[in-house]
Amino acid sequence: MALRPDGTRAYVANADNNSVSVIDTATNSVVATIPVGNLPSAVAVRPDGARAYVANFGSDNVSVIDTATNTVTTTIAVGNGPRGVAFRPVGTRAYVTNYGGSAVSAIDTATNTVTATIPVGTFLHGVAFRPDGARAYVVSYVAYTVSVIAIGPQVAALSPGNGPAVGGTVVTLTGINFTGATAVNFGAIPAASFTVNSDTQITATAPATGSLGIVDVRVTTPDGISVNSAADDYNYDTLPVTLQSFDVK
């Protein structure tokens, strides 16, 4: 069960009849019953209250409910046996535990796509976040353990992915968990400047370097530093041209 942030509605997953009941908390009455996937096991409401996300254990997907119209707007495929779902307090990510898949799926709720799959133990059950959003806690049902996930930044793409060694190229970084970024580095050199546009986008100006080649663009936040991958490769591909003049006699 989950409450809308304004407290006016409660959402209850009904595993036996593949639906979600919507309760008006002022009258304590069911005002809607919404068909979802097979064996819904958990529900969470987005921090803005506009959408509810339902983990459907039996159909390996997540139903997205428009809380204004009480209708399912889309269905997102995740891992095997989604069991729990929770929202990171900062940003727009939902995290779903997959009981049979031994992993947590991170969903970008702006696009309703899975942006990361995090391996975590076996037979995963519930998931919850620390209030600052820096850590997720995941219960392993059979192992009797709780796994702690550090929710750090991840760079998924650069545009453009190359530029001259003199620097000055404005590069757009897309990824996740950029909120609160304190640094952007091109290799060992700090970006000439950067702006955090959203939790999923940073605009950075490439610094000058004295050599050609590929460097990793890494983002630092209070949650950690992004891990190197092919997605963050930036290619310094052109050296400055030096013009010389000669006296011709």
Automatic annotation (TrEMBL):
Residues 8-85 form the YNCE-like beta-propeller domain. Residues 153-228 form the IPT/TIG domain. It comes from the Bacteria. Keywords: Signal. InterPro entries: Host-pathogen_enzymatic-act, Ig-like_fold, Ig_E-set, IPT_dom, N2O_reductase_N, WD40/YVTN_repeat-like_dom_sf, YNCE-like_beta-prop, YVTN_b-propeller_repeat. It holds the Pfam family TIG. Gene3D superfamilies: Immunoglobulins, YVTN repeat-like/Quinoprotein amine dehydrogenase. PANTHER family: DIHYDRO-HEME D1 DEHYDROGENASE (PTHR47197:SF3), PROTEIN NIRF (PTHR47197). This is Beta-propeller fold lactonase family protein. The lineage of its organism: Bacteria, Pseudomonadati, Pseudomonadota, Gammaproteobacteria, Lysobacterales.
